[in-house]
Amino acid sequence: MRHTTHADFALRVLLYLRVAPGRHGSVAAIAEAHNVSRNHLLKVVQRLASADIVETTRGRGGGVRLVRDPSSISVGEVMRVMEKDFAVVECLGAARFCRVAGVCGARSVFSRALDAYFEVLDGSSLEDIAANDFGLRGALGLVPGTGS
């Protein structure tokens, strides 16, 4: 299974905010830290804000901040917010045109696999994937005392 760029960027935004001073940052700073498109991040941040995972503030001193404790934000929740389709095979999707749908066991196997996948993601929080504060801060250029 492969996730969209928006799902990947959502995790990057959240990782940044998890280790940023005050758990706050501007979209421009996050885009620069990850070397990604600011325009793409704006869309990602809007979706995260509509899911009450982050909060945005306009103007000087504004930006994006985490609304909840990182331990309460599961990776599975983020993926569900950012992705529209988890039908890894056609028979899991809304439209089914497969001639053997209903008579083969693929739907059951892939459905169980998807359930197991989300069991792992739901059991993993932002706190879990961002546990290496020092390493993440260094990689993102958020070194204490530099004003970043």
TrEMBL record:
InterPro entries: Tscrpt_reg_Rrf2, WH-like_DNA-bd_sf, WH_DNA-bd_sf. Pfam families: Rrf2. Its cofactor is [2Fe-2S] cluster. Keywords: DNA-binding. This is Rrf2 family transcriptional regulator.
